[in-house]
Amino acid sequence: MSNPSNPRPDISVKQLTYSHTPDAPPSLRNISIHLPPGSRTILCGANGAGKSTLLQILAGKRLVTAEGADVRIKGKDVFRDSPPGVTFLGTEWALNSAVRSDIEVSHFLDSVGAVNGYNTERRDHLLDILDVDLSWRMHQISDGERRRVQLCMGLMAAWDVLLLDEVTVDLDVLVRDDLLTFLKKDSIARGATILCKNSPPDATHIFDGLGNFPTYIAHMRFGEFVTEPIPWPLTSSSSVPAETAATLPYAAPSSLYRVALQWLTEDREYRRELEKQGKKTRGARNNALVPSDSETFYKKYDYSH
């Protein structure tokens, strides 16, 4: 997908293939996308589709060495000429021991702001939206509250490109809705670009309230785009595969959940076809040895009977 009226997209990926290790099969295969400034794109797809890997590469967190691959943000190579104004917020932040230390939230935010710089009015607005208590201590708060602090920290400085890796999942419905409203207004006002991932652990929870947020949606499966970023809401002329188009509801912002559910259903059916060929096997295996070695071990030392 490209925008002929703007010769330089904010996010540009060409011929990207990536493997986590040299001997592993590719996690991403021949990815090419072009997202214009001010766009808000949601990546849909089942777990393992490659969404997080793509976001991490765009953030410069994974080095791509494949010949011919070109990954740029704001026209700059993300590895060799890192562009300013790019913010990545991922789920691994909450696992960092530093954010679970005995430090007051106000001191934590001040220390980050001193390094990155921020607008105090913007910071205070985010504190209200995310309902953050500056007197919280990082080691005493819940995962959801810690996520709010992360978002406030990451969004205090104005960004040009925002990469979100499922960081709204821990938020309650009201805070998530307020945050998405803020991000949409911010994107429109400043022409800033958002690319975010959503996955299916609880599709209703994740996609509820997102219908009016994106300008584009895309579908990834096993490291490839089944549907490259297309304008949202969908219309009868949207560029989706023929077998998908016949089942999708059109031109209804509230139907994003149904579109995502349809795509995930197709992903599962596709994988089941692969399973018939002996590939991508998940779930119970009919020919598995029962009991397993571990079951035999624990049964041997089970004194409850």
Automatic annotation (TrEMBL):
Which superkingdom does the taxonomy of this entry point to?
A: Eukaryota
Keywords, in A-Z order: ATP-binding, Nucleotide-binding
Q: Which Pfam families match?
A: ABC_tran (PF00005)
Q: Does the keyword Transcription regulation apply?
A: no
In the UniProt record, the signal sequence range is none
A single GO molecular function term of this UniProt record: ATP hydrolysis activity
Q: Which InterPro entries match?
A: AAA+_ATPase, ABC_transporter-like_ATP-bd, P-loop_NTPase
ABC transporter domain location is 11-247
What is this protein's name? Answer: ABC transporter domain-containing protein
What organism is recorded for this protein? Answer: Piloderma croceum (strain F 1598)
